[in-house]
Structure formats: C-alpha cells, structure tokens
Amino acid sequence: MTSYNVIPETFPLWQGDAPLSLGNDPVRDIPTLTAYLPRVATVLDHNKTAEPKKGTAVIVCPGGGYGGLAGHEGLDYALWLNERGIAAFVLKYRLGSHDYRHPAMWYDVSRAIRTVRARAKEWNLDPAKIGVMGSSAGGHLSATVITHNDAGKPEAEDPIERASSRPDFGILCYAVISLGPLAHGGSKRNLLGDNPPEDLVQHLSLEQQVTADTPPCFIWSTQEDKAVLAEHSLLFALALQRAGVRYDLHVFEKQGHGIGLGVRGYDPAVSNAGELHPWTRDLEFWLREEGLIF
Asked: Which of 78, 77, 91, 86 has its CA nearest to residue 39?
C-alpha cells in the first residue's frame, strides 16, 4: 500500500490578489491548493540505478452547491488517490455564498491545473497526466474546465500562466452538468445569481460544450439521487459519445446524493476497503486501463 504525506502543504494560487477578488479574507477570498503527495515510486533503468517515476496528479474539487466545500469529497478522495500512487491537490475555490460568481471559480480551477503542470518537475509529476475530479457542484466546476480551457499564454511574465489549463482526464462524481431545466437550483443560483442571461446558462450547460478535444472522462451517478439527477451524467456521456471522446459511465441504482467514497472520515490506516462504494473499484480499473496508475 502506498503511503501519503501526513503533513500536506497548503499554498495560495496567486501571490497577490486573485482575479475578481473582493477582499483578502483567508477563508472567503484566497483560493488555495493543498498538496497530498504519495511516496515517490522508483524504477530501475538499464544501468540498474534507481530513479523516480513521473506520477499522475489530480486536482480535486469538493462539492457543496457552490455554497460550501464538502470535506469528505476533498480529503477522503485525496487519501484514496494517494494509496494508488497518485498525487492529489485539493482545491479551495471561491464560493457564491461569499458573493463570488462565475468566472471566479473557473479562474481558480484553471489556475490550479496550470500551477500543478508548471511545477510538475518539482513534485516529480508527468505534465501530460494531470486530471481534475469533482463531485456535485465540484463536478460542474471540473466539467467547466474540461470543456473550457486553453493552451496557456506564451507571452505571460508569470510562468504559471504559460502552462495549459486543459486537464488530461476528468473524473465526474454525481456531477451537476446542465443548468437548464434539470439544473440543481442552489448550485445554479450560487454560481450565476438570480436571473442569469440565457447565453451564459447555455455556456455553462456543459453537455452543450463538448468537442472532439474534450479529454477522456470517468463518470458516475446513482438512480436514487434526487438532488442531481442521473440525467446529468447521461447527457454528458452522450455528448462525449457523439464527439468521439473516450469515457467510462456508471449509473448505480442505490444510494442518494453526496455519498463520496461510501464512508465518511476515510482513514487509509484502517482496514475499511470493503465499505467503499463499488465506483471506487471501477475508477481504479479505469485509471489502470488509461495508464494513470503505475
């Protein structure tokens, strides 16, 4: 079993004010990443000298309706990923409950991906194996950067801004996708405010934004979820199918919204793997098939 960094590092995404900042309160106004790093794997080259493998990284976007951040969809996921040798970076993004609206949150997740890619060598990561993972509204934020990203700004003075914001893969857990009639009302209101313009609603109804350049995705939901209907996942998977993008879709019958790993307060030191929801086994299989786990 892979160990993980028991003293994670938390750092701000910007050294100065973040774009669209409303203040400098550490909780409300300063988006951060917390890095959970697994033990560095090693391989032997042809000269029999040990050298570290370049690992996979995932930016984790907890859910919470764009009004809060659910810890069990952040830390728990990070520890699960670490056990599989994957570096996890939990994103604290700005929230509608703190008077932020789109595109502040999109700036945050885009900057997070650029940061991990720009600093990949420092963390011994493969810059071509950086993904994003999110649940519920965090899934919407993940799907937003999956479908709205860029190759970086070569002329930027900040080296982080020169890096691409395109994730190499996505993991969407009971994600909000559409902001149309199926929308989760609280997430839509916190993200866009009351009575947003229709063109913005369409821009962020992400089943309408998939292209052939969209990265491969693992998607799952449950039939019993009454907060974010399984149709969200189905619509996104159908859009990927039509665009010719690889995906792995799972819709489980039982359990409602926000179940995370299937346990709360996940502790890798405790033998509770049998309590994890089956989606975790399916995800591990997919990650191996995609060449993202050593």
From this structure: 86
Question: The tokens of 52 are what?
Answer: 């570290």
Whether the per-residue pLDDT at 242 is higher than 90: the answer is yes
Domain spans of the chain? 9-289
| Closest to 125 (Cα-Cα) out of 172, 153, 163 | 163
Residue 125 CB partners (closer than 8 Å, separation 6+): 54, 55, 56, 57, 87, 116
Identify the band that residue 43 occupies on the pLDDT scale cut at 50, 70 and 90.
very low
pLDDT at 42: 42
Q: What pTM, to 2 d.p., does this model score?
A: 0.94
Task: Please give the backbone phi and psi of residue 211, each rounded to the nearest 5 degrees, phi first.
Answer: -130, 175
pLDDT reported for residue 3: 42
- What count of Cα atoms within 13 Å lies in the side-chain half-sphere of residue 282? 18
Segment 183-228, tens digit of pLDDT:
988 999 999 999 999 999 999 999 999 999 999 999 999 999 999 9
Show Cβ contacts of residue 215 under 8 Å, excluding neighbours closer than 6 positions.
131, 146, 166, 167, 168, 169, 170, 245
CA 52 to chain centre: 25
- Exposed (0-12), middle (13-18) or buried (19+): which is 102, by Cβ within 10 Å? buried
Region 9-289: CATH code: 3.40.50.1820
Long-range contacts of 179-186 (CB under 8 A, 24+ apart): 179/204, 179/205, 180/205, 182/229, 182/231, 182/232, 182/235, 184/65, 184/136, 184/137, 184/227, 184/228, 186/65, 186/66, 186/67
